[in-house]
Amino acid sequence: MPILRAVSRVLDLAVWIIYAFSALAMASLVIFAGWQVWGRYVLNSSPTWTEQAALLLILYISLPLAAVGIRQKFHLAVEIFPDMLSPRGRYWQEMFVLVGLGFFGWAMADAGIELMTRTVRQAIPLIGWSRAYTYLPLAISGVMTVIFVAERIAWAIADPKRASHPQSAPFSL
């Protein structure tokens, strides 16, 4: 279990980085939207790049946070069915769900990488970046989902009486 605790601490750091990046991206999103409004209504010259940049930022905010939601258990879940099961039944039901989430994460990563390779030479209109950047958060989130699911499964196997999430404190500097 010491190795699992060490891995969890590293993943705590990864979650902290995702939170920090998402906060910066959200602040940038607000600034871009403000610049769009200022340009349109005050300067009468709307910047063309802000809408595409905002759409890109939404992907970079939402998809990594969805992966974190699987680790932190703040994703959408129906709790009535597991509450009707015995502790052993709950354990196996959770393992079944985690394996399904792992396959979903793998499919996200695989599709994201495939889409990146297909669109690397296409440009995003108005900002000129490669279209592959649109699919990068899908691939990253898929990989992070698989890693977070593997951690939860490892904790469930290492200590079946404990919740599958390590319940460790958030990483702090």
From TrEMBL:
Protein name according to UniProt: TRAP transporter small permease protein
Transmembrane portions of the chain: 12-33, 53-70, 91-109, 135-158
Entry-linked PANTHER family: 2,3-DIKETO-L-GULONATE TRAP TRANSPORTER SMALL PERMEASE PROTEIN YIAM, TRAP TRANSPORTER SMALL PERMEASE PROTEIN
GO cellular component entries: plasma membrane
Coiled-coil annotated spans: none
An example Gene Ontology biological process: C4-dicarboxylate transport
Topology versus the membrane: Multi-pass membrane protein
Domain of life: Bacteria
Family indicated by similarity: Belongs to the TRAP transporter small permease family.
Pfam families in alphabetical order: DctQ
Keyword Iron-sulfur: no
GO molecular function: transmembrane transporter activity
Domain Tripartite ATP-independent periplasmic transporters DctQ component: 30-154
Subunit field text: The complex comprises the extracytoplasmic solute receptor protein and the two transmembrane proteins.
Function, in words: Part of the tripartite ATP-independent periplasmic (TRAP) transport system.
UniProtKB keywords: Cell inner membrane, Cell membrane, Membrane, Transmembrane, Transmembrane helix, Transport
Subcellular location field: Cell inner membrane
Organism: Neoaquamicrobium microcysteis
